[in-house]
Amino acid sequence: MVYDVNALLNHINKIRREIGHEEVNIDIKEVLYDNDANEMWIITNDRPDKSAIIGKGGWVVGRLREELEIGSIHVESHSDFLQKEYRMNLSLNKLNSFVNENKENLDYGTFIALNNLIDILKIKLDNLYSFNFYKYFKDLEEGPYGYFEAEKPAAIVALSGGTDSSFSLILAKKLGFNPIAITVDPGTIILPNQFRHNIDKLVEELDVPHEYIEVDYSELVQESFAGRFHPCGRCSKIIEETLYKYALENDVPIVIFGDMLATGSQCVTEQVCNLDESEDEIDEIGKNEPTDVDNEANNNKVIRLNLPASLSVSKSENKSLTVHYNLNKFKGFGCPLLYEVHKKFPHMKRYSIQRILRETRSGVLEPGEALDLIWSFYKTD
């Protein structure tokens, strides 16, 4: 179905008049409609045009959807997509060069899985406005061809039960990484039972092997409650080191994280794990830094892949796939320790908010989503 842009603009301004909004001149770059899904994408030139179509509280686009009898309308700004397109091209270049430079060292399953990721990245770039992960994989499963899966696990996925890690596991499975899901278990102070429900449900539905690895967080908890540091950075480091060690011990070449910020050239990196009797130290290989990778006793490499970041996935794209797996939904960050630290030391909220703002600047979070997250910190006071 083809929609006349001028007729659509007149309809939008009619709705604005009826609900007490002023008429405005709006620039629409493109209108796309999927008849099978009954979905429309309205692409504006910039964010102010997007805001005018959405209206205060979403009233304008809500009325438009009802009156046109369309299942869902997505209003996006072309300026946002220019940034997303740029980042995806950076990811594509990095993944291509990484695979080409390492193809002699990659086993066949890992090579195929990484090329599957490159393939879906190209397809998303070709369908910049309307790509839908759920629809894409559904069509793939119903068609005659699909992605080959690695014979042995090519990746482990850090699974916390939240939407980002759940999305990463679903994607890793669909792209043929034959993943193992690993959950670092520090106890309910950080991993509450409702997250365990999501973890157990998802791995069963995807038929993915899964392990809980118990880790002693007592020192981190004590130091956090003493106000010595914000817990998130230390927690992430423990999780990373635990997963890298597991990957090395089980000969799994890739560790996948749901980090949404490591976009472009940082989406895939090599980590060197210097293992000795006293401790494990993990360092990223710098491009121009010499490393003694031939000394197998002290140096072991593992590939870190930030899967959602490699595809410049937004939170809304993330949720549009994970919603089909009937997982529990959580408001805020969902970590009991973080909220207790916020209550005891309100100034620590500053560092949590900084993280939210970084994700908003990167386009991962919409401003409204960011506001909800920040507000959730203050509703617990």
Question: What can you see in these coordinates?
Answer:
49% of the residues lie in helices and 15% in strands. The chain is an alpha/beta fold and 381 residues long. Helix 1 (5-18) packs across helix 3 (59-68) and helix 4 (78-102) packs antiparallel against helix 5. It is globular, with a radius of gyration of 23 Å. It starts with a helix and ends with a helix. Residues 277-281 and 285-295 have low confidence and may be disordered.
Task: Spell out the key features of this protein.
381 residues; 15 helices; 10 strands; 15% strand
Brief sketch in words of this structure:
This protein has 15 helices and 10 strands. The protein has helices spanning 5-18, 47-54, 59-68, 78-102, 108-126, 133-142, 163-174, 193-206, 218-225, 231-249, 307-310, 315-322, 336-344, 349-361, 367-378, and strands at residues 28-34, 39-44, 72-77, 155-158, 180-185, 210-214, 254-257, 268-275, 280-284, 299-306.
What form results from the Cα inertia axes?
globular
Derived from helix and strand composition plus strand pairing, the structural class reads alpha/beta
- Termini separation comes to 51 Å
In helices, the fraction of residues equals 40-55%
Determine the number of helices (DSSP H or I, runs of at least 4 residues).
Answer: 15
What is the count of β-strands? 10
The low-confidence runs, each spanning 5 or more residues with pLDDT under 50, are 277-281, 285-295
Percent of sequence in beta strands: 15-25%
Mean pLDDT figure: 88
Tell me about the largest β-sheet.
7 strands, mixed
* Succession of helices and strands: HEEHHEHHHEHEHEHHEEEEHHHHH
Rg over C-alpha atoms, rounded to the nearest angstrom = 23 Å
* Strand order within the widest beta sheet: 6-5-4-7-10-8-9
